[in-house]
């Protein structure tokens, strides 16, 4: 089931997908289930943040299209820092189009997402063709990063009035179950096990990434809604995603350490360790 009481180390051993195994291994090795949402506008700021926070995070989340100066050195800089600090990269691109178009947006194109992002997310508003299209690219015989790429289905959103609820979220679970070669889990505010029939077999272990996390703030002025790190983890999130709570803090390194401790402690409590 998704709200796992198993330690990351056990899930790393058992998971069928190499990207999920690696996520859990990194979390365990660094004692961190924190993802920084690095919503920076320039390469210099992005790489500086990755180098400063790298030791304390499991995953670095990008919106690569926010950069005003994206270039070769952005991509190579990110990849070098990911290796230096042993973190993975999640591009929060939220693919949502016909299969043919998303293949082009994912691979090559201006943003070169397939080159740097271990994990991407996709919306299934248009049905599961989008998942099949991305899976086809990830599994192509000449694809350089085979077994090093995976995706999450965007099954809930944190904004007020989100339409991604109920039957929509249930549909996301059904699609994920059918595409375990490429889908390792969901972007969601909680484990999705409260949906009847969402409990899978022994081999089913969806990873939950949770946005909208902030230790001190409840909302922003544009509809964002937050929960705390310990709330997210206790409700079944496996990795919390924090943007302004960390990078806009007076001292981002002190802030990331605070989030790391709170969410790791919540994980230890959930897994009875
Ligand atoms: P914040 O500064 O922690 O509010 O940033 C949240 C980030 O997570 C930001 O990059 C959003 O685009 C992203 N996000 C979100 O906030 N809510 C969602 O449902 C999804 C992504 Br999906």
TrEMBL record:
A Pfam family hit: OMPdecase
Keywords: Decarboxylase, Lyase, Pyrimidine biosynthesis
Domain Orotidine 5'-phosphate decarboxylase: 33-259
Enzyme class (EC, first level): lyase
Cellular component, GO, one term: cytosol
Gene Ontology molecular function terms on file: orotidine-5'-phosphate decarboxylase activity
GO terms for biological process, alphabetical: 'de novo' pyrimidine nucleobase biosynthetic process; 'de novo' UMP biosynthetic process
Protein name as catalogued: Orotidine 5'-phosphate decarboxylase
Source species of the chain: Phialocephala subalpina
Lineage: Eukaryota, Fungi, Dikarya, Ascomycota, Pezizomycotina
């Amino acid at each position: 089931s998704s709200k796992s009481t198993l330690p990351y180390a056990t899930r790393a051993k058992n998971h069928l997908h190499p990207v999920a195994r690696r996520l859990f291994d990194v979390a365990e090795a660094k004692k961190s289930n924190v993802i920084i949402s690095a919503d920076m506008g320039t390469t210099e700021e992005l790489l500086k943040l990755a180098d400063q926070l790298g030791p304390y995070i499991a995953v670095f989340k990008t919106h690569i299209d926010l950069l005003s100066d994206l270039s070769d050195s952005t991509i190579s800089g990110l990849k070098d820092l990911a290796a230096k600090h042993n973190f993975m990269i999640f591009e929060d691109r939220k693919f949502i189009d016909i299969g043919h178009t998303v293949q082009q947006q994912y691979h090559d194109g201006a943003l070169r997402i397939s080159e740097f992002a271990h994990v991407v997310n996709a919306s299934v508003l248009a049905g599961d063709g989008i998942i099949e299209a991305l899976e086809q690219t990830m599994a192509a015989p000449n694809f350089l990063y085979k077994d090093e790429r995976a995706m999450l289905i965007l099954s809930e959103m944190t904004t007020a009035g989100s339409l991604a609820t109920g039957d929509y979220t249930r549909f996301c679970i059904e699609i994920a179950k059918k595409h375990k070669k490429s889908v390792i889990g969901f972007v969601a505010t909680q484990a999705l096990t409260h949906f009847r029939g969402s409990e899978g077999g022994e081999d089913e272990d969806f990873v939950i990434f949770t946005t909208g996390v902030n230790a001190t703030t409840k909302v922003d002025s544009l509809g964002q809604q937050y929960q705390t790190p310990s709330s997210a983890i206790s409700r079944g999130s496996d990795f919390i995603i924090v943007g302004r709570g960390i990078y806009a803090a007076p001292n981002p390194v002190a802030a990331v350490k605070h989030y790391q401790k709170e969410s790791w402690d919540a994980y230890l409590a959930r897994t009875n360790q």
